[in-house]
Amino acid sequence: MSQSATREVRPDGRLRLPPGQRLTAGWPVLHYGAIPRLDTETWRFHVWGLVEEERKFTWDEFNALGNTTDTSDIHCVTTWSKYDNNWEGVPFRALYDAVKVKPEAKVVMVHSYGGYTTNVPLEDLLAEGVLFARSHDGEPLTKEHGWPIRLVVPHLYFWKSAKWIGGMQFIDQDRPGFWEMYGYHMYGDPWKEQRYS
Ligand SMILES: Nc1nc2c(c(=O)[nH]1)N[C@H]1C(S)=C(S)[C@@H](COP(=O)(O)O)O[C@H]1N2
Ligand SMILES: [Mo]
Description:
- The chain is α+β, with helices and mostly antiparallel strands.
- It is built from five helices and eleven strands; from the N terminus they run αβββαββαββαββββα.
- The strands form two sheets. Strands 1, 4, 5, 8, 9 and 10 form a six-stranded mixed beta sheet that branches. Strands 3-2-11-6-7 form a five-stranded mixed beta sheet.
- The longest helix is centred in the middle third of the chain and has 8 residues, at 92-99.
- The model has no long low-confidence stretch (mean pLDDT 96).
- The structure holds the ligand Nc1nc2c(c(=O)[nH]1)N[C@H]1C(S)=C(S)[C@@H](COP(=O)(O)O)O[C@H]1N2 and molybdenum atom.
- Residues 30, 76-78, 158-159 line the site of molybdenum atom.
């Protein structure tokens, strides 16, 4: 990657490459534990907590919520970044509109098949570019990258982008997810280098 690429400036005036990051050409695979065995017949997306009605969406119901594409950069806390990822899937906003979230809900505990969790403020999930991605650069997600669907939260470190996502629990107070319990930052803004707390 050329020097100029790493000095690129974003429309908001911040450097495109957050501090302490370096560009990678490939796409590393990073997760704790084994890849869960899933199939779209039995897959469900469970929504519970501070919502009017608890729901379990089937694969078809979930995908019928809406469709969107977004291109964004990945910033992993272990210092690799990967530019221009083309994602396609269900926008978070479509799920949000479908489940009638109670006003007390402030945070979402994201749950993945296999037991991984991560906490994200509701406001951040409603930001531009947040989606449940089924495909990356025009190809279905591979198993190691989160098939059949993963969360993508482009403006936070990539550990918030849970692979093999299976549910969201709406809660009124922030609490740590899996890596957050082991010292990762509760929020994780790459431009503020909120890596560990
Ligand atoms: N379910 C699950 N999702 C996860 C993780 C995990 O361990 N389990 N690791 C996170 C971390 S730390 C990173 S950096 C990214 C890596 O995604 P990738 O393997 O597609 O690059 O997934 C995130 N999502
Ligand atoms: Mo990570």
